[in-house]
Amino acid sequence: MGYFARISCVWLLLAIQVKAETSGSLEITGSYFPKSLGASFDTNITAEAKVIGYEELDDFQLEYEIIIRKSLNDNGKDIIEPRQLFLSKTFGDIDVYLGYRHTFWGVAESRNVVDLINQQDLAAGISADNKLGAPSISIETYLGSGELQYWYIPRFRERTFNDANAHPGFGMSVSPSQFAHVKGSKARDQALRYANSIGDIDYALSIFDGTAREPLFIVQELDPPTIAPYYERMRSVGLELQYTGESILYKFEGLMGTQSGKDFDAVVLGTEKTVYSVFETQWDMGVLFEYQYDDRAQALIDRMIVSGVRLTANDEFDTNFLVLYTVDDAFSQSLFGLEVSRRLRNGMTLDINYLLYQSDRQNLPFYSLVDDSELSLTLGYYF
User: Fold this and answer.
1) What average pLDDT does this structure show over 27-40?
2) Which one of 95, 175, 224, 264 has the lowest number of neighbouring Cβ atoms within 10 Å?
3) Neighbours of 343 (CB within 10 A)
């Protein structure tokens, strides 16, 4: 993040006024890595503070989401940045946004191949919710019952990474990024998306032209060796479909295009069935199944199968469980994930997460992630 953005964060935190609508959170996460190897640490503590605000400024609206994160053992997690920091103004039926902003595209649970606006804050974890704000000019309007978005992103946000010996880490330091475009991170991105519905079917069509969000990794034979992210150029067309029945969802995300002159296809296809008041209790249970395919060069595994169970208690504490099991089509490497969340008293929350990587052979991508299996507990306070 640039110098100006850092100064803006500090200024906003000091200049919050009583009349502004503000909220925020403070989270403390303790992590344990039971299979940690070599020079990697087996425990870590991370603190993250977030301030979210909204204020009317004459004819404009100011919105911001400032994040400050500090880790005990992993400097790669340390960050001060605006997840969002933008001005907006309405011109008739058109809303215009200027600044750091994020959005979400997609319908699938396990992966969203069409979600191309924001870069991932990978140092914060593998969840797609960890987004970096995109410095952009964006326009939104309605065409009949459908929503049309246009994004112009003049500067690329690079992905964050953990330290070399952190979890996950490359075992070597990360060199400055390389880009296929001669303008590097200053190459512009553009995207267009139209979303609407027909009866029980929600759909969206999108076009993207810019820098691929997921990099390739090049090992540089230096002393000591380093690894450099390499970002290719990409042009793509995306399609989202979701059918909503009484107790079932059918989901589809498809992305096709070219990346550095090579054609590619990426698809997520799935369904989710909900059983209400399971076993005559107040609990609801969702059973989901998704299939992933991605033949791009940066995809670790081209075919993955995801199954899971979601339990919702429907209680005053908003208790939720989510179990996901991801395996390749040869059933030789897998990821088991467990998420438990619950509200406590007085604005407190408790989240438990468990990730377990497994692999049969050393030449498989998940083998290098086995020591990154993690059990974490997060205590949050929201105000």
Assistant:
1) 93
2) 224
3) 17
